[in-house]
Design a protein that fits this description.
The chain is of the alpha/beta class and 343 residues long. 45% of the residues lie in helices and 18% in strands. It starts with 6 loop residues before the first strand and ends with a helix. The mean pLDDT is 93.
Length: 343
């Protein structure tokens, strides 16, 4: 009788034929081997399916390939979760990668001394070739190694720590017990919404002090296209607030949503649109909206202890001092990143 894999790794894949081999190779090279791979081809119009199949057939790893019409990353992850065999679930985007000891580190952490329901590690941002663009330590703090899940939830939502679907390991029993899933149709913020709901129902969280995932910056990504769809990020945070209110979360957290979390989602949208080159005239119409402007004004940078958050603080000040120069600088930064991504 074959042993069931301990971990199920779900990879939603849409038009990533150039990148999915690197993603899968990063799994084949893991020091920890007791896992299965579930690739969900989300209606790709290129050779993603063929490339993934060829790579998996040649490996010794258990795998499943699911095909669906293009329904988005949320539905792809949900479909993947339906066929998992492992005790733990890990997500990995179809163009990102893991470091060699990533899964081993996460398993050792979550199975350590403590009732941990989630382990997570650092996530660096890299080019397609693996060159580091931004290190986790330059963006986020390390306030704790272990934490009550409610503390982790607050720190996660306010940006003190960063947990991504790529960098975390989830217990399947928690997901199934509370019927957690990704919101179908959500294009931005759906991952943070899912993680926050998971943390709400968890006991303790453990941070693995090593880089476990590598988020690949690529200028041809759909997330690098300027679109009003980025307001989905605001919708995700508003849905999350409603969910927490219905589940009787602490009043203090709801107050933080109104004073910090939802305002930060608006600030992120404005920055994202400028960064990705939304037409300036149309962008200025958006920022003149009183509700949006008031929300951005309410956004507070809670820490200045990392280079990233010092830059965020400067960006907010510049936005209110001169929206034009804010827009120009965001465009310059985008072009610099695009250039570095090709090196």
């Amino acid at each position: 009788m074959k042993k069931s894999p301990k971990i199920s790794i779900i990879i939603p894949a849409f038009n990533v034929e150039k990148y999915i081999s690197n993603t899968l190779n990063s799994l084949f090279n893991q020091t920890y081997k007791n896992f299965e791979i579930i690739v969900v081809n989300d209606g790709s119009q290129d050779r993603t399916l063929e490339v993934a199949r060829d790579s998996l057939i040649g490996s010794k790893i258990k795998y499943k390939i699911l095909n669906q019409e293009n329904k988005g990353v949320s539905v792809a992850r949900n479909e993947g979760m339906k066929v998992t065999c492992g005790d733990y679930i890990k997500f990995l985007d179809g163009d990102d990668m893991l470091t060699e000891e990533s899964i081993e580190n996460l398993v050792l952490a979550i199975e350590g001394k403590g009732e941990f329901d989630l382990s997570f590690g650092k996530q660096d941002v890299v080019t397609v070739s693996g060159k580091i663009l931004m290190k986790y330590d330059d963006m986020y703090l390390k306030p704790w190694i272990e934490a009550d899940a409610k503390v982790a939830l607050k720190d996660f939502l306010t940006g003190i720590v960063h947990i991504s679907t790529n960098s975390a390991l989830f217990k399947k029993e928690v997901i199934e017990k509370h019927r957690l899933s990704f919101t179908p149709g959500a294009l931005y913020g759906e991952d943070n919404e899912f993680i926050a709901k998971y943390l709400f129902f968890s006991r303790k969280v453990v941070f693995c002090e090593k880089a476990t995932s590598l988020a690949v910056y690529r200028k041809d990504s759909s997330t690098k296209v300027a679109s009003m769809k980025v307001f989905h990020n605001v919708a995700s945070m508003k849905r999350l607030r409603k969910f927490l209110a219905l589940n009787n979360c602490e009043l203090n957290l709801l107050e933080i949503f109104d004073s910090q979390i939802i305002p930060s989602s608006y600030a992120w949208v404005i920055g994202n649109l400028a960064f990705n080159g939304y037409p300036y005239k149309e962008w200025t119409k958006i920022i003149k909206n009183k509700k949006i402007r008031d929300q951005v004004r309410k956004f507070k940078v809670l820490t200045k202890e990392t280079p990233y958050y010092r830059q965020v603080k400067l960006a907010k000040n510049l936005f209110f001092l001169s929206p034009f120069f804010f827009y120009i600088i965001m465009r310059i930064i985008k072009k610099q990143y695009d250039k570095k991504s090709e090196e």
